[in-house]
Amino acid sequence: MKTLLACLLVLAISVPLSDASCFFMACKPGMSGGVTVGCLDWEGELREFGSEWRTDDCNDCSSSRDGIRCCSSYATPVDYDKEKCESIFNKETCSYKVVEKDDHSKECPVHSWVG
Question: What is the C-alpha separation between 86 and 88, in angstroms, rounded?
Fold first, then answer.
């Protein structure tokens, strides 16, 4: 029971410390049949109120009457051996992998992630 409480405490403290990259775009009304049904995104696509989607550049977005809010869906590695290792972003999985520069089959330990 103490272990469970300790894990919950760590989780409760770490969530507010996360630093997701987010942005907000005020709603440009999107009409259908003369009625505003959503917002137009940066590409002019209608996003109905309450809809959620993932962009090609790995942002998770949602639309409301106020506008469109998007946040990065991935964490970025920041604390690893940068001389020996490199981070590689996979756009299909929206995630980073940290591997040895000389042998990409060997993963490197990461001590901190941001996002």
Answer: 7
Alpha-carbon distance 52 to 59, whole Å?
A: 11
7-43 tens-digit pLDDT = 333 333 333 344 569 999 999 999 999 999 999 999 9
**Identity of the residue numbered 54:** R
Q: How far apart are CA 72 and CA 61, in angstroms?
A: 9
* DSSP type of residue 107: B
pTM: 0.70
Which long-range CB contacts under 8 A does 18-23 form with residues at least 24 apart? 18/114, 18/115, 19/114, 19/115, 20/71, 20/72, 20/115, 21/71, 21/72, 21/115, 22/69, 22/70, 22/71, 22/72, 23/69, 23/70, 23/71
